[in-house]
Fold:
Amino acid sequence: MHLTDTRLICALLNIKPDDLKTDRNLLGQLLETYIFQELQKYIGWQDSAFDVYHFRNKDKVEVDFILRNGNYITGIEVKASASIQMNDFKGLIKLRDSIGDKFIKGVVFYDGESILSFGDRLFTIPYGAFLLK
Structure:
C-alpha cells in the first residue's frame, strides 16, 4: 500500500531530512512510494491503458512495479543506492526469463548519474531524471 503524499508520510512518522541521510532503507521506501506516485501520473497521461502490479514469486524474488500494457510488461525496481550491481536485477531477470518477448524492458531507478545498460533489455536510470522537478 502506498500513501499518495511522501511529505505527509514524513510528517506522520516524524521523519526529518537527516533521518533520510542516515537510513538508506527508509529513504528507499519513500523513493519507492514517490516513484509509484509519478507512475500513476504517467499512466494518467497515456492514451492506452496501463495496469500496475507488484511481482513476487514462490522463491520470494520481487519486482517493485510491473507496468502492463495489454500483453506487454515493463518491470521497475527502485534502489536508494548510488551504485548498481547485476544482483539488483535479480527480480527483473527472473521476470524477463519467465515471460520472454512480452517483457519490454527492466529498469532500476537509482541514486546515480548515468543511464546504463546491463544487458538484454535491462537498464539503470537515475531517479533524478525521472522525478518531476
Observations:
- The two ends are 24 Å apart (CA to CA).
- The first strand starts at residue 51 and ends at 56.
